[in-house]
UniProtKB/TrEMBL annotation:
Residues 1-19 form the signal peptide. Transmembrane segments: none annotated. The lineage of its organism: Bacteria, Pseudomonadati, Bacteroidota, Sphingobacteriia, Sphingobacteriales. Keywords: Signal. It comes from the Bacteria. Pfam families: SIMPL. This is Secreted protein. It comes from Sphingobacterium yanglingense.
Length: 239
């Protein structure tokens, strides 16, 4: 008996779906597109930092290990307000060190990914690292702490825009727009789509020119706004 009831329930459900589909297909409707855009400045930056082992003054007996340089980076990052869990290792590799007294020797190098939310602390972070152990630094990604809210806002505006466009078309024929029949979300709001070409950066360093003056090279990152767009396809009933 239970199986028979279940069978009839499924048949009824399919009949209702088919009826709704037929109603949509047979109804008078208008299809439009909705659009929304917004400029947003990322408030999360992902840095790629590569560290390497080296010899002090080229002396092979005075190697500065990757663990020591890594500790300098971690200490600097924590001091700059970076959370420990926001520092991850991306890659580990080795390179040859050429020395006149010895054959090529293998030294370690590590690449880290650091999530930064306070750009004012970048100089503090990189200043803690010995410049000889800092192989390269670059920006390789953006994000935003309110990404979900921004996405919701854009989709809401795009749906309203689709309805307004439908109302314009319907009014041109002396008609009015009723309920929405179909909404297709064609948007893909992803900050990673705007990942910059890696921008090389360097820790703050000081050098002395011929006049004896000290020149300071501060780390300066200009984060520009990103234009996010959203597209919606809508089908509306014409009354």
């Amino acid at each position: 008996m239970k199986q028979i009831i279940t069978f009839f329930f499924l048949i009824s459900s399919l009949a209702m779906v088919n009826a709704q589909t037929m109603n949509i297909e047979n109804s008078r409707k208008v299809a439009t597109k909705g659009y929304a855009e917004k400029e947003v400045t990322p408030d999360i930056i992902y840095l790629s930092v590569s560290l390497k082992e080296f010899y002090m003054d080229g002396n092979s007996k005075k190697k500065v290990t990757i663990e020591l340089i890594e500790k300098q980076l971690f200490d600097g990052a924590i001091a700059a307000g970076v959370k420990k869990e926001d520092i991850t290792i991306q890659n580990i590799y080795s390179y040859n060190y050429e020395n006149k007294k010895k054959n090529n020797e293998l030294l370690q190098s590590r690449q880290y990914r650091i999530k930064v939310t306070n750009l004012n602390g970048l100089n503090t972070m990189l200043d803690k690292v010995d410049p000889q152990g800092l192989q390269s630094t670059s920006i390789n990604g953006y994000d935003h702490s309110q990404k979900r809210e921004i996405e919701k806002e854009l989709k809401t505006i795009a749906v309203r825009d689709a309805r307004q466009n439908a109302e314009i078309l319907a009014a041109a024929d002396g008609q009015s727009v009723g309920r929405v029949l179909i909404i297709n979300d064609n948007s893909s709001i992803n900050f990673n789509d705007f990942a910059p070409v890696p921008q090389m950066m360097y820790a703050k360093s000081s050098r002395m020119d011929v006049s004896g003056a000290t020149e300071s090279n501060d780390l300066n990152i200009d984060i520009r706004p990103i234009k996010l767009t959203c597209y919606i396809d809508g089908v509306f009933e014409i009354k």
